[in-house]
Amino acid sequence: MTDDSPPADGEDAGAGDLTHTTDDGDVQMVDVGDKPDSERRAVAAGEIRLRESTVEAIREDEIGKGDVLATARIGAIQAVKHTWEAIPMCHQIPITNVDTEFSIAEDRIELAVSVETTGKTGCEMEALEGVTTGLNVVWDMVKAVEKDESGQYPETGIERVRVLEKEKHRG
């Protein structure tokens, strides 16, 4: 988890102020123990590009593995809760809320994940993990119908994964 609060002297950390390394260049977890708790929220989004026939099959609940979006929602929430296990320098934070929202277009599905916490560090990495895992679950659920004759995925792609917003409110 990145330490997104200003350094102790009140100045914003610059490119030369790497918070995840020691003076000797060793990797370290940021010490957030003395930081006050604050309410934090982050929203991330991304999309998976699919064949139009696959999107239609998802809409009609005709994918053999089951309900694609319900399964992806569960995967996204699980990923949010386990981000600290997947990203080496992330802190384990108390997740107070996770919202997932899917938008379906003709040739793609977009997923937005909103994460809330009250703690000492932000939750944008959790939101990003939720998005990427949720979209990976969609891919896994539809891969049989997305493959071409040679077993490749020429039309499938996860794209535009990004943080849309990040908020911090001191308590």
Structural features, described:
Residues 1-15 have low confidence and may be disordered. The chain has a single domain, classed as Alpha-Beta Plaits, CATH 3.30.70.640. It is of the alpha+beta class. It is 29% helix and 28% strand. It contains 4 helices and 4 strands, in the order βαααββαβ. It has helices at residues 52-59, 68-81, 83-86, 124-146, and strands at 38-49, 95-104, 108-119, 157-170. The radius of gyration is 19 Å and the shape is elongated. A hairpin with a 3-residue loop joins strand 2 and strand 3. A 4-stranded antiparallel beta sheet has the order 2-3-1-4, covered by helices on one side. Helix 2 runs antiparallel to helix 4.
